[in-house]
Model the fold of this input.
Amino acid sequence: MTDRVYKTIEITGTSTTTLEDAIKTAIDRASQTVHNMRWFQVVETRGAINDGQVAQWQVTIKIGFALEESS
Amino acid sequence: MTDRVYKTIEITGTSTTTLEDAIKTAIDRASQTVHNMRWFQVVETRGAINDGQVAQWQVTIKIGFALEESS
Amino acid sequence: MTDRVYKTIEITGTSTTTLEDAIKTAIDRASQTVHNMRWFQVVETRGAINDGQVAQWQVTIKIGFALEESS
Amino acid sequence: MTDRVYKTIEITGTSTTTLEDAIKTAIDRASQTVHNMRWFQVVETRGAINDGQVAQWQVTIKIGFALEESS
Amino acid sequence: MTDRVYKTIEITGTSTTTLEDAIKTAIDRASQTVHNMRWFQVVETRGAINDGQVAQWQVTIKIGFALEESS
Amino acid sequence: MTDRVYKTIEITGTSTTTLEDAIKTAIDRASQTVHNMRWFQVVETRGAINDGQVAQWQVTIKIGFALEESS
Amino acid sequence: MTDRVYKTIEITGTSTTTLEDAIKTAIDRASQTVHNMRWFQVVETRGAINDGQVAQWQVTIKIGFALEESS
Amino acid sequence: MTDRVYKTIEITGTSTTTLEDAIKTAIDRASQTVHNMRWFQVVETRGAINDGQVAQWQVTIKIGFALEESS
Amino acid sequence: MTDRVYKTIEITGTSTTTLEDAIKTAIDRASQTVHNMRWFQVVETRGAINDGQVAQWQVTIKIGFALEESS
Amino acid sequence: MTDRVYKTIEITGTSTTTLEDAIKTAIDRASQTVHNMRWFQVVETRGAINDGQVAQWQVTIKIGFALEESS
Amino acid sequence: MTDRVYKTIEITGTSTTTLEDAIKTAIDRASQTVHNMRWFQVVETRGAINDGQVAQWQVTIKIGFALEESS
Amino acid sequence: MTDRVYKTIEITGTSTTTLEDAIKTAIDRASQTVHNMRWFQVVETRGAINDGQVAQWQVTIKIGFALEESS
Done:
């Protein structure tokens, strides 16, 4: 447990199927540009309604990732 | 962007299966009397326990819907 | 309505599959030592990320259970 | 556990005597138009002061009631 | 200050000009169906962005109005 | 509606009898030095326990009072 | 000021009469198994409604008590 | 940046025109008795409604001011 | 509804004139480096006071923008 | 338990060394004009940064003190 | 990642020296009866004031610990 | 007062010694890539426990820094 520093970013993932899938979508997209992701925390759960039915699940999460030591 | 004014109501849906289903139950029931629903936001997630097991998932959501222009 | 006093405890359940399963894991473990559980409330939803993917769903709930009358 | 969907409304009751009476006033008035009320939750407790004394107790509660199945 | 009971509803007003105008829009629309409105409280201030500019101001308010005595 | 500006102070009243009495105690004491009090809002409700019984009810309130125009 | 460490537990007391009585019920029950209770703090005030009337007052409190030094 | 100490007071300003004007009214009145004001923070935005229209904008702010060193 | 994932950033805009202008300043500056902005939400409203007058309006907003699909 | 009524004030203390020192600075300054201080509660912890380093620790606390009985 | 279920308890530690020491005091006392502690989170920071000086630092933390599998 | 727009980022610093050191660690690491940092605000204070002792102090802060004018 050497001293480490983490940064948190806030991402909203969406899905037409489940809440878990919306979170996975957010993390999957973030993994394209962010490395060393360690944890997430759900900040808000919303959704879009169309014709009286859930059209989209929207979950906003904070993602924490380790910052690499600069050399 | 022609909608002008929205009203929010708070509904608790229940389900014996999943959190998503509890939300769908809430929206499905609301659609019987409310039109032009646009979004929802999860306010609280609770449940009933019976004999040491989850007996009911209970999700309280705010539902936003557009108010029609009076003529 | 004969129950008189309830105690609340805070438990974090984990799962590799779904949010509902994490909650069930928490309640299932609590049922080994606590009786008369009546309700739960989700306090926080987090997760662990490994290799850019969700490795563990973590849901913290408050569980309310009836305290038996002392005799 | 046959109730399926609940609606929550927010009512402020007032009283010149006690906090409990302010809550009862709110529920009593609501019962004139709302049926199947199941629970309430205190949201805010305020009051009016006149001549250096409490002139009115004001308690805002959320009331939850079961929505009947449409047929 | 006879005992009175108030109901609160949540309305989102929108405007392309100012925050105050968004609130006025909400109250103006509510006044078509609700009487005896007494106060409002801002719950959330949001907006839509289009082409890098504010396209719509959106203010969600709670409106409190007196319930008339049933006779 | 001629009052223009209000100040809020935070006072904790105590009582050995009821919550209402603790609030009255706070307002009564405040009235010795503050004039034109208009409203209060409960911020926190606590109490002291002695020998397994409530020894003191403690209610913290915000009190709003009108500031007189300077001349 | 010799007490050193305190533990907090969360208890919900109920009553058919007053809010104060619900709190007393919680503390009275807790005193059967917990010693050295020092303070409480109200966390939530709810109630059950039956036939359009308050059937039960429910107050959730946190109770703080001193942990005895282990020897 | 010698060590400094600040005090915060809570003031509600009102206006019949804009939110900004309500804040200015609060600060203008406070400046009659408080010196060295440095910042404000909006705590709550409310208003009075009369005849279905906004009659008064009410903004509650916290004002921070530097306490002068006693000599 | 083709946008899939959004990122939120937190920006504080300032102005010497109005709250709306402070928000526009924030969004205008953000538009220099961020594309596909969709919404904002006010997080905090503060200001600087100089010589007993508002010297600067400061509004902190969260801005949500769509992340483009990586190819 | 003879103290009856308490007032709370909000003070921000600063320090160039530690968080504890910032709190002590606030209480030390308050003691010049306020007597019978009993407790404090940390409301917010902030700081100023200069040249990439912490230049000042800023801790805002609420201080509770007993109001003397007027005679 | 073999731990499955965690319980959270709330403990207040005190110290006459530093905030860190108050937290250590809480964890040290908890370690006498609780095993497998993994993390803590600060819930509230308070203190007692005596003769115009900090007499006691009081930090309330939530402590999370792993529940062992029953066999 | 020439700075116009600020951005806020959220960083978690860690330390094995003190809370202040955890904050300094966060700011020190951020200073490698971010310029014109002006203030920070503590968002959350947590820690890791190992063998019944604090193994790591973890402080999450928001850091505000001025965005330079684009030319």
